[in-house]
Amino acid sequence: MSGFVFSEKPVAIESGEGPYLYADDGTEYLDFGASYAVAAVGHCHPKVVEAVQEQAAELMYVQASYPVAARTELYGKLATLAPEGIDNVWLCNSGTEANEAAMKFARSATGNSKIIATKRGFHGRTLGALAMTWKRKYKAPFEPLAGDVEFVSYGDEEELAEAVDDETAAVFLEPVQGEGGIHPADPEYLRAARDLTEEAGAALAFDEIQTGVGRCGTLWACEAAGVTPDVLTTAKGVASGLPLGATLCADWIAEEPGDHGSTFSGGPVVCAAANATLDVIVEEDLPTHAGDLGGYLTERVEEAAAAHDLPVRDVRGRGLMIGIEVKRGANRVLRDLALEEGVLALPAGRSVVRLLPPLVVEEEHADRFVDALTGVLG
Ligand SMILES: *Cc1c(COP(=O)(O)O)cnc(C)c1O
């Protein structure tokens, strides 16, 4: 073994199709974490595979200063799909980089440095995004970080009102906190954040890296609250596993060309993967499907918990972003789900089982998950 950053699970995965992963010994796993929400349209969606293969055969890479059809198409698609008015697109290679760019753009557009982020929030692991991330454990060994970040309690309008002032560059919010335990924001809170930042001349940045591309029942989670931010970041599911992040921003935030950059920005193969992924999401109306299936799954989990007196404290979320708070450690539940039931999910803190299934799951998959959970917790 030579990798050292990740601890690995005792299962070697060889292939994937739709909501399933297959181990090298042939065992089938139902992937209800979509491998960190990345397999939004399912593993190896044929349209995405085809687009990637075709583009790879034609041109693998050209520097971002030369227009190339796949990138031009993605700029247009993201600008069209983004909430109205945030149609400037910066492409990069991960979620944390999309947030780094958002921080830089907001600082430069406002001339301010102070950033407001939230307790329990997660925005990535590079030094800027990490500075906006709440958990001490992620930060302590690496300090000093890219400072001037003030933390407020997520959901507390008054605290936010006190923190936002004319020295604020940006407020960063996840419309539903993911890593922090699946906590959806009250739409009222997002609207308050909009008003406060507008009054102060600060940028409102929504980190939709986990909530976006249809997961929460609308293409972007902020749409459900009727709030348009100045900056929106996306990554994870947007290119089906090829590394792509995007920072979408309003005109007043957008930089002059050359102020920020990255060699791999908008390579044609990742762009082709993102174009095909977004096409599938739109053509199959997966956001609506995620809303419906999320409702079904949540109800079924609640019913099973009540009927079998399962040690479940709470079930919460939006669409197919669901947290099941359990009374014993989530990691043990997740291990038993994987090894005994062939179902994969994710933790969100110590006590929350996090479900981020591919948006293409059907009721039969939800039923299988609920049976597995009942088996493990019962
Ligand atoms: C995963 C995630 C990130 C970081 O994305 P990476 O691609 O891992 O750098 C940032 N914000 C949120 C909300 C995330 O879920």
Q: Mind explaining what this structure looks like?
A:
39% of the residues lie in helices and 19% in strands. The chain has 378 residues and is of the alpha/beta class. It has 2 domains: 13-45 and 285-369, Aspartate Aminotransferase, domain 1 (Alpha-Beta Complex); 46-283, Type I PLP-dependent aspartate aminotransferase-like (Major domain) (Aspartate Aminotransferase, domain 2). The strands form 4 sheets. Strands 4-12-11-10-7-5-6 form a 7-stranded mixed sheet, sandwiched between helices. A 4-stranded mixed sheet has the order 1-2-3-15. Strands 13-14-17-16 form a 4-stranded antiparallel sheet. β1 (13-17) and β2 form a beta hairpin. The site of pyridoxal-5'-phosphate has 15 residues, from α4.
